[in-house]
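Fill in residues.
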């Protein structure tokens, strides 16, 4: 794991939290965005904890560069604020999760594990901010190839996902198995070029395929 954080106290805290987990190892550290990019390309870590506010290149821009070069790496954006203006930028540029720095250590470590498994990791307050920010932006027309390739069933799955439903809840609403729902989501992600559920919801809203709401 690579930890990119310019606050030395926070860096030490993250190092301790991660070091206490038996299944994680800190392979390197970075103190600004440019160093984070260089260290990521050198070390090729599985997971990167990326602070959003660093001198020089910010964490969102560093995330975008790393994601292009190391698409298999799991990048977790970290900030002091749930309503940080960098949230949506970081997610669009390739972050798989967004954590607030005051997350309790045990929850932070579990969130890292979940993100690595491909699950979307956003606290409720962060998700509300993401929904509010993305909804303010006008939808754009999806490429014709995308529109034609999204079936009615897949649109139903996307819409339920965009309203905050879990795989189990989507399965119950559509009378499907959870395995079938996962298969639908995997195909939709491939069609929309999204790497996880959060990016899928954002992309679907941008293309006017789903309406973002928080019904839960």
């Amino acid at each position: 794991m690579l930890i990119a954080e310019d606050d030395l106290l926070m860096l030490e805290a993250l190092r301790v939290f991660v070091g206490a987990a038996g299944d994680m190892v800190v392979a390197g550290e970075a103190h600004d965005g440019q160093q984070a990019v260089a260290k990521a390309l050198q070390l090729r870590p599985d997971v990167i904890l990326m602070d959003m506010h660093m001198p020089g290149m910010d964490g969102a821009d560093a995330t975008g560069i790393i994601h292009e070069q190391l698409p298999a790496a799991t990048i977790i954006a970290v900030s002091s604020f749930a309503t940080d203006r960098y949230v949506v930028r970081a997610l669009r540029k390739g972050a798989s999760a967004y954590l607030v720095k005051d997350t309790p250590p045990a929850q932070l470590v579990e969130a890292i594990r979940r993100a690595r498994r491909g699950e979307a990791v956003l606290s409720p307050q962060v998700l509300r901010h993401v929904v509010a920010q993305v909804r303010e932006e006008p939808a754009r027309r999806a490429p014709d190839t995308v529109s034609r390739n999204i079936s009615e069933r897949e649109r139903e799955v996307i819409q339920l996902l965009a309203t905050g439903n879990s795989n189990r809840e989507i399965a119950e609403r559509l009378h499907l198995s959870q395995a079938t729902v996962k298969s639908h989501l995997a195909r939709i992600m491939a069609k929309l070029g999204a790497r996880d559920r959060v990016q899928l919801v954002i992309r679907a809203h941008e293309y006017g395929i789903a309406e973002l709401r928080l019904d839960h």
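The chain has a mean pLDDT of 84.
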